[in-house]
Amino acid sequence: MERKIRVLVAKPGLDGHDRGAKIVARALRDAGMEVIYTGLHQTAEMIVEAAIQEDVDVLGLSLLSGAHMTLFVDVTRLLKKKGMNDVLVIGGGIIPKEDVPKLKKEGICGVFGPGTPCEEIVDFIKKNVKK
Amino acid sequence: MFDKKELEKIKKEKDKWEKESYLETINKQPERKEKFENLSSNEIKNLYTPLDISNLNYIKDIGFPGDYPFLRGVYPSLHRGRIWTMRQFAGFGSAEETNQRYKYLLEHGETGLSVAFDYPTLYGYDTDHPMSRGEFGKCGVAVSSLEDMEILFKDIPIDKVTTSMTINGPAAIVWGFYIANAENRGISKEVIGGTIQNDILKEYIAQKSYIFPPEPSMRLIIDTFEYGTKYVPRWNTISISGYHIREAGSTAVQELAFTVGDGIEYVKWAIKRGLKVDDFAPRLSFFFNAHNDLFEEIAKYRAARRIWAKELKKIGAKNPRSLLMRFHTQTAGCSLTAQQPEINIVRVTIQALAAVIGGTQSLHTNSMDEALALPSEKAVRIALRTQQIIAEESGVIDTIDPLGGSYYIEWLTDEMEEQTYKYWDRVEKLGGVLSAIEKGFYQREIANSAYKYQKEIDDNKRTIVGVNNYQTDEPVDIPILKMDEKGEERQINRLKKLRKNRDNNKVKRSLSNLRKVAEGDENMIPYIIDCVHSYATLGETCQVLRDVFGEYDEIAIY
Predict the structure, then answer these.
(1) How many interchain CB pairs under 8 A, A with B?
(2) How does pLDDT run across B506-541, given as a tens digit for each residue?
(3) Tell me: the pLDDT tens digits for B224-245?
(4) For chain B, domain boundaries
(5) What pairs with residue A36 in β-bridges?
């Protein structure tokens, strides 16, 4: 049997807006993926550690506070440092369009803003996951 | 309200209309949907008539504004007497920048202030704490000490304008900053007016900026009730909030049921402490969301007022002011779209209309750009103008509760009240509010509603203009707020200087006194105000309480 795609959905920092993260987690689960949700208030270290422990293929970061340029980048840099180059990293939240290319350069391959249908995220993961 | 004979006649005529006229029409042309539902998944009928509210007694169930059960409004003349307070929730970057924004808003006709704090402040961390990384000024203004509060309200007449502060976990400390700042400016505690949100139950349920476990959190809140009643009589010591429950994805009925239920829980705790309900209940205030379904929202506010009055009466309140559900409303942030952001102005107008017709005491209208970033000056001005147009041009406030007596509205009000009591029964069976939180009941209910709503949009069963229908390729072109990049550095330097220059013996002494009191059971507020006056920072003061009370951690449910 083919191994299910394993996804870690993570909430870095202090932001408590978890509606989107939970909806995406559930939509990915309903699409047949294995989903682990970190819960709130995670540091970059905690997220990367969980990604290693859970041996995930995808890491989804969610942040609506506006601190994505710091907190998303902390995570991707630490991932690189730990040699986790195979993990597909995506992000979502209130992210102004001028930040999107900067995040992509830092290794956040997909950035999803408000109004994104869940299906679009599912398709993106299926297409881009490194297996 | 109608006599029996009249009702029978109406029933006969309605059956006839249904059979001959209505069915014939929809047989020729079917209706747009098989089933019409509102946002709480209640089926909405084609037509409401006296038959749907035949159980209502006008005097007993509807009554008059300012009279029990306050369904039609908490004051006799409502907005004919005084327009609601226009209170735009605002805060970003440093205290200096936000101070400028407040002055801008007041200059343009805002009538009350409302502070948005950044995440570190909401969690009781100073700007230079490691957990604050990246968050300075992002979601609101950073206030780490009395000095920041002084700057935030510099040259603003806090003896005249009232201020609402969205702060929960560390509410008592931030309130202390406000009180101490007033005192230092020679303004008495008895004069200042405003609100601290101070509603920890909805933090566990939905907003998630909690710090301490439930028991000590509730103790702090009751401390503020007790202190406020005695020394800060014009302050609303809590704003029991459904707003965030709704933003997290609940339905209108869930928002209503969970929020008013939380309100009763606070009353119970205060009474358990030995406070008299008529001493503190008049200072309890509420905060609701205004979402897209105009009539459902209006019915929600009306039902909330009636339920609250009934329940407080049951509890034994005698002072009529204890029965008044006064509330603030904010239009639904979660309903705003990043696509075609200008059309959010229209959404906000409809939502604000619901709040006004629903009898709100104060109102925040969202800015069109809030699904993209914090609001720009122009966007927030348009949002404020929206309120001014409703107030001054639309005429909707010239009569009180204009939809009162509408068969549909009265039916829906009743229906929402009934469903609220059903939710309360479920909570009771789970062992009450705190136990239901621990068991994840509310969190699961909200997550289910949020997912259902999203699925309906994804499956095109619910239209969101610009998102799943009527899209355009036109690029979004509205200015985004830029913050002062030097703000964080300036704030960190200010904190360093403060810690060096203040009387550190005094700080140590006040913090150690607070620790002792926190370990016992005396009211903590006077000791918190002492810490604040000594220029102990938010983080330092909160850390004392963290040490004594521990921290809360939730079980994540999705």
Answers:
(1) 106
(2) 999 999 999 999 999 999 999 999 999 999 999 999
(3) 999 999 999 999 999 999 999 9
(4) 59-458
(5) A8
Tell how strand B235-236 and strand B194-196 pair up: parallel
Please choose, from the candidates B183, B192, B126, the residue with its C-alpha nearest in 3D space to the C-alpha of residue B165: B192
Q: Which CATH number fits domain B59-458: 3.40.50.720, 3.20.20.240, 3.10.129.10, 3.40.50.300?
A: 3.20.20.240
Pairing of strands B327-331, B235-236: unpaired
pLDDT at B153 over 70: yes
Across the interface, which of A14, A26, A69 has its CB nearest the CB of B131? A14
Class of the CATH-defined domain A6-67+80-126? alpha beta
B323, B268 Cβ separation under 8 angstroms:
no
d(CA B238, CA B225): 8
Q: What is the pLDDT of residue B96?
A: 95
Given an 8 Å threshold on Cβ–Cβ distance, is A74 in contact with B134?
A: yes
pLDDT for residue A1? 65
The structure's pTM equals 0.97
Contacts of A14 in chain B (CB under 8 A): 119-120, 122-123, 125, 131-132, 135, 209
Q: Report d(CA B558, CA B548) in Å as an integer.
A: 31
Contact A19 B132 (CB under 8 A): no
User: Token match 């609940």: residue?
Assistant: B250
